[in-house]
Amino acid sequence: QNDMDKVVTCLAPVNIAAIKYWGKRDERLILPLNDSVSLTLDCDQMHSQTSVIAGPFIKEDGIWLNGQIMPIETNERLQKCFNLIRQLIVKRKGENCPEAKWKIRVCSENNFPTAAGLASSAAGYACLVYTLANAFDLLNEDLSSIARQGSGSACRSIYGGFVHWKAGIDDLGSDSIAVQIADDTHWPEMRIIILVVNDSQKKTSSTVGMQKSVETSELLKYRIQKCVPERTTQIIQAIKDKNFEQFAEITMKDSNQFHAVCLDTYPPCVYLNQVSHEIISFVHDYNEATGQIKVSYTFDAGPNAFLFILQNDLSSFMSELIKVFPTDQPISSYIRGIVSTQSDML
Ligand code: PMV
What we know:
This protein is of the alpha+beta class. It folds into two domains: 6-185 and 335-344, Ribosomal Protein S5, domain 2 (2-Layer Sandwich); 190-333, GHMP kinase, C-terminal domain (Alpha-Beta Plaits), CATH 3.30.70. It is built from nine helices and 16 strands. It has helices at residues 76-93, 120-135, 144-148, 154-157, 206-216, 218-241, 244-264, 274-290, 311-324; strands at residues 6-13, 15-19, 24-26, 31-32, 36-40, 47-55, 62-65, 68-70, 103-110, 162-165, 178-182, 190-195, 295-299, 305-310, 331-333, 339-344. α1 packs parallel to α2. The two termini are 14 Å apart. The mean pLDDT is 92. (3R)-3-hydroxy-3-methyl-5-(phosphonooxy)pentanoic acid (PMV) binds next to α2 and α5. (3R)-3-hydroxy-3-methyl-5-(phosphonooxy)pentanoic acid binds next to α2 and α5. Pathway: Steroid biosynthesis; cholesterol biosynthesis.
């Protein structure tokens, strides 16, 4: 007789930051230097899918990522997520509960390129933590703090809709958590277009890029002190008011400043390429021609563009876009959140 005879499977989408997280004040606990704000996409286009099975019948922990076994012993972040979930099980169910001793098997896959500046680690760690929590009935706990310790931006994918990751001030990170600004039904007209410019793995990982920026960029200090606090307040208000132009302008400015910080890093981290810059120009030209801010862009640590636009403007914009970027196949996504299912063990 097995104690857990269900396979719990969840899909977690990527989230795209409109105010970027860049720089840590604590590397081990993954505590950021600044607040960030993001939108969680739907699972239809880009997601991580994770299945978890646990029980006394499993001999040792194991994790498979994209079909390959991962060595947990040498992966500090994976280990941390497993340990934090186990600590939570003990806290909630007592030290002598059998589940605390169960070994866990995890199988995780991304349906899009990993480590290409497409927020794969955010979806991956959010999915891992959420699925583990689901398997052990811990969904009411603050999972964002655990996901954060897998990959910083993963704490935001725990929630659907519009999310604010508060940097916090506590040295132990108790107040560095993600909170939902508004759920996925709040602004149903919002669409995200993803233009995959290059899906090969980035040269400088965000972890290394951030460290270098913290060590060498003067602009990063200015950004954190003088720009991000005000922008965060303003964009949260713009989201609440569904003020697209305000939202879009802040998003573009923040993306540009983040990449300026990357260039101010020594040696510089160059994530955008020629096509990224052409997309930026195209968006500004389009907005100028319409006399309004109809569309905005943001870029993570890679050349791929994420465009925000309202549903009513989508088709006319798309018809212009494909004239200029004919070979790209734009992906259009909604704002949503995590999906979970359970199936019987085979
Ligand atoms: O969570 P990480 O370590 O992959 O860092 C993500 C950093 C950016 O994607 C560039 C910005 C963000 O806020 O998502």
